[in-house]
Amino acid sequence: MALEQVAQKGLVLLGCGKMGSALLAGWIAAGLPPRSVWVLEPNPSDWLVAAGVHLNKGVPPAPAVALLAVKPQMMGAALPSLQALGNGSTLVVSIAAGTSIATFEEVFGARTPIVRTMPNTPAMVGRGITGIVGNAHAGADGLALAEALMAAVGEVVRLDNEAQIDAVTGVSGSGPAYVFHLIEAMAQAGVAQGLSAEVSMKLARATVCGAGELAFRCSDTAAQLRINVTSPGGTTAAALAHLMDSDSGMPPLLARAVAAATERGRELSK
What we know:
Layout: H1 2-9, E1 11-14, H2 18-29, E2 37-40, H3 46-49, E3 54-55, E4 65-68, H4 72-78, E5 91-94, H5 101-108, E6 114-118, E7 128-134, H6 139-150, E8 154-158, H7 165-173, H8 175-192, H9 197-217, H10 222-228, H11 235-243, H12 250-269
Parallel strand pairs: 1-2, 1-4, 2-3, 4-5, 5-6, 7-8
Antiparallel strand pairs: 6-7
Helix pairs in contact: 7-12, 8-9
């Protein structure tokens, strides 16, 4: 029903880089007609040019959704092109970090329905997760529409308030980089133990990807999955004694990392 509403009234996509392209591909795969989409993108990819959307041809007068997918530092210059859509029925959805709902209300008007979201880069392969929160004018219908759109590239969680979106940024928004760095670190550790760089990277990458898929498919908690592969006194237990150390292991390290990313998100919102 949500995509039918968008198909009838149209959707404007402001910015179509990697994340915007992932969303657009997900919507089209879910059945949204390309001719229902208006894209404003100064540097369109070949894929976007061939996608069949309205590319850099203005916007309809009252689309169902205007989704803002430009980088935060470009937001100020890009938003005026959509300012006329404010204070109406168009739902404004932002995927930009560090730009608050209050900032968008200043641009579009206080009566504008607005939903702020924080997706992550696995959306590019349909395995993302997005946190969403809306203002009072978005209401239940606006949140449901935004959730349906973001679900095209993965899972969606609803937040209790906007302040939580900085924590979402710290955990899942920035989180893929933590996992990629884990792959790097595991590969480097394998090399230190005598493996070739190529073999060690292949082992580390496949292990992280496979373990992630197992966690995704299995109903067991992460703690139980860890226990399942940890024999008392075995090799995994020897490694976990270091990784789970309360002073120097992964829990305090990740707590500091997530806190730093969360705090940076708060700073960008000011």
